[in-house]
Amino acid sequence: MLAVDGDEAGRGGTRRVAAADRRGEAGHEASPLAQLARRSAEREALRARLAAAALPKTLSTAEIAELLAAVGGIPNALRRATPAEQAAAYATLGVRLVYDDRTNQVNVTADLGGVGVRVGGGT
Q1: What string of pLDDT tens digits covers the 123 residues of the chain?
Q2: What is the secondary structure of 27-91 as a DSSP string?
């Protein structure tokens, strides 16, 4: 523990406290000021890494069409997908499948609210 008595107040005591902040006392953890400075530097380094990280690329319509053609179209891709992959695809597309056991039918609905649909004409 660092103690500063009345005789060491002023510049000498300030120098002693600053030196202790930089090195921590022998056998003890670094001082709170040194820890704060280290953590601030770590935070800034992480912010810089985050800013430099590449964002995921958005696929163009042509790239999506090419990928779908490579897997044989949407129906074939969904047939080959696992149940978890199918559920994720349906959820992303806003598709909902509901089985009606009385009529033994599957009702399909789609929420086009998230899909980029354009209507001709002015607004």
Answers
A1: 444 444 444 555 555 555 655 555 555 667 888 889 999 999 999 988 888 887 777 888 888 889 888 888 888 888 889 999 988 888 888 888 899 999 999 998 887 665 544 444 444
A2: TSPPPHHHHHHHHHHHHHHHHHHHHHSPPPPPPPHHHHHHHHHHTTHHHHHHHHS-HHHHHHHHH
Q: Report the C-alpha gap between 33 and 98 in whole angstroms.
A: 60
Return the closest-CA partner of residue 77 out of 63, 89, 94, 59: 89
Cα dihedral 16/18/20/23 (nearest 10): -140
State which amino acid sits at residue 92.
Answer: T
Cα four-point dihedral sign 65, 71, 74, 77? negative
The first and second tokens of residue 96, run together, are 């909902």
* pTM for the structure as a whole: 0.35
